[in-house]
Amino acid sequence: MSFERVQEKLNILADAAKYDVSCSSSGSNRTNKNKGLGDASASGICHTYTEDGRCVSLLKILLTNHCIFDCAYCVTRKSNDIKRAAFKVQEVVDLTINFYRRNYIEGLFLSSGIFKNADYTMERLVAVAKKLRLEENFNGYIHLKSIPGASDELMREAGLYADRLSVNIEIPTEKGLKLLAPDKNRADFLKPMKKVKNEIIQYKSEKKIIKSTPKYAPAGQSTQMIVGASGENDMEIMYTSNYFYKNFNLKRVYYSGYVPISYDNRLPQIGTPVPMLRENRLYQTDWLLRFYGFNIEEILNNDHKSLDLDIDPKLGWALRNLHEFPIDVNKAEKRMLARIPGLGMKSVYKIINARRYGKLNWEHLKAIGVALNRAKYFIICASNEYERRDLTAQKIKGLILQNSKSKYTKTLSNQLNLFG
Amino acid sequence: MYTALIYDGSFDGFLTSIFVSFDLKLEKVNIVKSQFFQDSFFEEKETIITDKEKADRVWLGLKKKIKPIELSRMYYAFLSENATVENALFMAIKYVFKSKDNVASNFSNPYILEISKLSKNVSREKHRMEAFVRFKLTKDNIYFANIEPDFNVLPLITKHFKNRYADQKWMIYDLKRNYGIFYNLEKLETIQLSFNNSFDPTKTNASYFTDSELEFQQLWKDYFKSTNIKSRKNMKLHIQHVPKRYWKYLSEKSPI
Ligand code: SF4
């Protein structure tokens, strides 16, 4: 391995890969075999954090940033005047193994620009994973990007070596895709996703009968959407997300605030702030759908196409549905407890546990960790003191905002200023 | 009158002290590591000789009364090396043995609560250490890391590393407590090293480490820089996740 050459490639190809926000290394059940190297079942560790505060768990690189496509939102696009580089398969293997042995990483996240064609690219990604597994007896975490348009045979093979596979949809709407990536089409994204989904289903059913069935992508599939590049609204983003969760059994959808990288006038200009607050609201919505039992239509619909920036989506829902409140925390079932603003799922379980031993009052709720500054307008408990005034949604919102200091207050006021 | 029970600092030594205090029906004890002991006119003093059998009897007795998680909370708390932890454990263990039901999770008892808090701190650092250990490859082919954790977490993290690095020799050395764990491809050994004066644990001295070691550290540093998105910079969050006191041995944070 020539140090200088690898160093230069690493700088270029790590820089180009950083816009992929997924860095999860959890969810696999791959354990150390035959005294080999690594153990992905105990993954999920963040070995360090970047200065922007994101978890560093995997060596996240592109195999190459040569690309035949010209997607406007992407630094790697053909027409962009940048330095290009390509790793050899062995170089990626060596880097991964040497980083892993030093306890820098949990494994590898390998993506790539598309050179020549989809299969040619996918083949090389698979070759890296195969070499790691078969030659190096590597049991750490491997996340491979599925290249849009890759053949079923390659996707089948990819899943035998990778823990996770992902295709980034990037642009939430068809019209956005037409505008920004005219030479790409949606069907190409869906093809490898479908194949992987079916293989996972098949693996799970075979596994029940034959224990030794080789693992297939044990940590499942994920995807990413860019937020704020193509003028889509929150409803469009979340409905797309919901569609993918439902139809492709995705483990995760990631939302990535668009980082301006181009003067292309179809896109937000360089210097436009990254919509981090909006990104955060989308993640919160995602959680409400996956863990809190909300339906997407309750949070986003034709009357309400965008998430509030100044309050979280659960509070937003509650304020639009005041007729559901107040809720008696000593009686309400889990489903309704989960809908109270200021209550996380942890608090919900603690309440259900604790109320078996006696009625809960404000003190108890506080000790449990409920954010009373928000919750108090929506609940009653074993106390005569509660909010009796017949407050309007507007009024409650005002009171809550007055008494809370969001960690986003600064960003929020900046972003509100910018947008008038 | 208080009796000072002076033990060697080991967990077995501590459990032996508990055994002795029960055996002699001592009500007021002050269990203290020999290195911290200071003679006083107002105390009897008793030197404890660590006895594995006695220690095991206390441990097994506890095991019968409380849940595994509660048991491990006690061990974790002990490793915090907090100045009052021996006393808290003594009181808590007495309380557990005296009660008919299992009270090891009754947090309204101040000693049980203290143990729970200490064990949480230790557990947090255990996870941090599993993440922050940085191995360097020595000339004799051992992946070597030095650490200086706030608490004595080394015994807690070795299993994780053994599962993961089954095919490489490695050693993690606690410079603060001056002992390390060495994995020789077969099993784990506790070792003590004497470093010569020229050894600087924050540096990678070419006479001890392989030629490519510095190169990989450089590549890792480069990677750390390249993967950062400047327009999203958030140093507050960064430091919250990677507290400054750990930077010394993190290759990505220290100048090579
Ligand atoms: S195909 Fe992928 S790498 Fe190539 S320009 Fe489009 S998004 Fe970028």
UniProtKB/TrEMBL annotation, chain A:
Keywords (A to Z) from UniProt: Iron, Iron-sulfur, Metal-binding, S-adenosyl-L-methionine
One Pfam entry name: Radical_SAM
GO molecular function: catalytic activity; iron-sulfur cluster binding; metal ion binding
CDD domains: Radical_SAM
Source organism, top-level taxon: Bacteria
Annotated ranges, domain Elp3/MiaA/NifB-like radical SAM core: 57-284
Cofactors (names): [4Fe-4S] cluster
InterPro entries hit by this protein: Aldolase_TIM (IPR013785), DNA_rSAM_put (IPR023874), Elp3/MiaA/NifB-like_rSAM (IPR006638), Endo/Exo/Phosphatase_dom_1 (IPR051675), rSAM (IPR007197), rSAM_sf (IPR058240), RuvA_2-like (IPR010994)
Entry protein name: DNA modification/repair radical SAM protein
